[in-house]
């Protein structure tokens, strides 16, 4: 059996390893356009900040027994009818290769906004290892002291932290009214306060239209008349599915132009699978497909695609969109749906905000945790949660508790039945997760009483 895999990042490598484990006799080959298989793109901000010294450490491993790695090989076309792919190697020669099973794991591509000057020297995107090398070299130039970051999402936040770590003056710009729009504005304001505390200039409600180069460096200009000078400009406004190859091959697309798949990660074309940031993802709370480009999801989907391509029967169980990011000394996390997202999907939703200590206050070092719990006020069903707190306050662990509850369809009150660990330096007899659930239950008791009459 010949299993060809297009893409050598999270989903592609997971697929290859899973296929190899399922069918050791299969001929497995991975084709990646660059020379960096299995590299952690999520680690790029920490490499650029200097906290991760060697770029090589961003890869767990780059060679795999029983798996052929074709680096610098661009797949130009997929022919589903003939079951072939056209591959252009570094030499420029195009070769037609047959497959029995194909896995498309082409990932995501950066969204490029309509800004004049994106190709100027000193203007960068940050999505690949090569991008990080270019930024790293530019930062070595004398006088590289200021940066403008366009986009206040995950990468924008992490890069504001990273460049501040290097002692640069950082300005963070976003077209939304509050930074980090993936969480509620109440928490976005807390993040904005932290950024300002750390010396980052925050400009919101501002849309950049041009970047110009002059003797004094780069000038960034907004539609609203705002202007700023910078030595470096980073444009990181989001990603989209890299699905052009699939579309050209006649593979149907779904939500947000991501490749349409089923729970076995099969496309609508026989013998062709897809996984990772190029595909749509089943959302367990919404109960429909959407676009959720996450590394954790890519690994799971790749594993399912690889096993099934090699003869297995595994199914992808779906996602609840669990995410966490470190911003200076804050950790910010979310899972499930925010109230606005739930209501846009036609669901009843109410949110309660709750604050408490992350562990017993009598033990030194206690920090405040801020939690927002969203549930259906009539059924009591948990719909989502958000947490902001110190990055050492077990924010990641606690959002994972909410995620596990969401995955199982637990009610908000049902969180109180969870058997969670406790010791005074780490938590309380009622964990903050449970105390926030109790606060939500108290606040929404009237709605539930009405629903049961």
Our count of domains comes out at: 3
Rounded to the nearest angstrom, the radius of gyration is 23 Å
Poorly predicted sequence stretches spanning 5 or more consecutive residues: none
Question: What structural class results from the helix and strand content?
Answer: alpha/beta
How would a textbook summarize the main sheet? 5 strands, parallel
Strand arrangement across the biggest beta sheet: 3-2-1-7-18
State the helicity in percent bands: 25-40%
- Average pLDDT taken over every residue: 95
Q: Could you give the count of β-strands?
A: 25
Beta content comes to 25-35%
Instruction: Figure out the total of helices.
Output: 11
- The rough form would be described as globular
Question: CA-to-CA gap between the ends?
Answer: 61 Å
By CATH reckoning, the class of the largest domain would read Alpha Beta
In CATH terms, what is the fold-level topology of the largest domain?
Answer: FAD/NAD(P)-binding domain
- Output the CATH homologous superfamily of the largest domain: FAD/NAD(P)-binding domain
Task: Tell me which CATH architecture of the largest domain applies here.
Answer: 3-Layer(bba) Sandwich
């Amino acid at each position: 059996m010949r299993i060809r895999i297009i893409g050598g990042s999270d989903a592609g490598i997971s697929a290859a390893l899973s296929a190899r484990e399922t069918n050791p006799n299969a001929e497995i080959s991975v084709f990646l356009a660059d020379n960096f298989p299995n590299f952690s793109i999520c680690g790029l901000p920490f490499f650029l900040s200097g906290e991760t010294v060697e770029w090589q450490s961003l890869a767990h491993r780059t060679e795999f027994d029983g798996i052929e790695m074709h680096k610098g090989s661009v797949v130009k076309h997929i022919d589903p009818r003939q079951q072939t792919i056209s591959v252009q190697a570094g030499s420029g020669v195009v070769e037609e290769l047959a497959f029995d099973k194909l896995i498309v794991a082409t990932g995501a591509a950066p969204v490029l906004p309509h800004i004049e000057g994106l190709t100027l020297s000193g203007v960068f995107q940050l999505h690949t290892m090569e991008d990080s090398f270019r930024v790293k070299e530019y930062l070595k130039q004398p006088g590289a002291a200021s940066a403008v970051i366009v986009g206040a999402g995950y990468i924008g936040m992490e890069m504001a932290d990273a460049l501040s770590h290097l002692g640069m003056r950082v300005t963070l710009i976003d077209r939304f009214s509050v930074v980090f729009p993936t969480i509620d504005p109440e928490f976005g304001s807390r993040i904005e306060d932290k950024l300002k505390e750390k010396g980052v200039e925050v400009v919101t409600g501002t849309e950049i239209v041009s970047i110009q180069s002059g003797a004094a460096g780069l000038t960034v200009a907004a539609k609203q008349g705002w202007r700023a000078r910078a030595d470096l400009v980073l444009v990181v406004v989001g990603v989209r599915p890299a699905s052009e190859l699939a579309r050209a091959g006649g593979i149907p697309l779904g939500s947000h132009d991501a490749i349409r798949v089923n729970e076995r990660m099969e496309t609508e074309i026989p013998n062709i699978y897809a996984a990772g940031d190029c595909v749509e993802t089943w959302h367990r709370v919404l109960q429909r497909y959407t676009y959720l480009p996450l590394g954790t999801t890519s690994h799971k989907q790749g594993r399912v695609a690889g096993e099934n391509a090699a003869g297995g029967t595994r199914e992808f169980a779906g996602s609840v969109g669990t995410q966490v990011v470190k911003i200076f000394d804050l950790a910010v996390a979310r899972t499930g749906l925010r109230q606005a997202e739930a209501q846009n999907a036609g669901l009843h939703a109410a949110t309660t905000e709750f604050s408490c200590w992350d562990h017993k206050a009598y033990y030194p070092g206690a920090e405040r945790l801020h939690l927002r719990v969203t549930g259906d006020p009539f059924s009591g069903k948990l719909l989502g949660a958000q947490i902001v707190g110190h990055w050492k306050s077990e924010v990641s662990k606690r959002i994972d508790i909410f995620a596990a509850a969401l995955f199982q369809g637990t009610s908000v009150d049902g969180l109180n039945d969870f058997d969670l660990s406790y010791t005074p330096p780490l938590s309380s007899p009622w964990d903050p997760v449970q105390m926030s659930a109790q606060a939500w239950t108290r606040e929404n008791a009237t709605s539930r009483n009405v629903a049961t009459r």
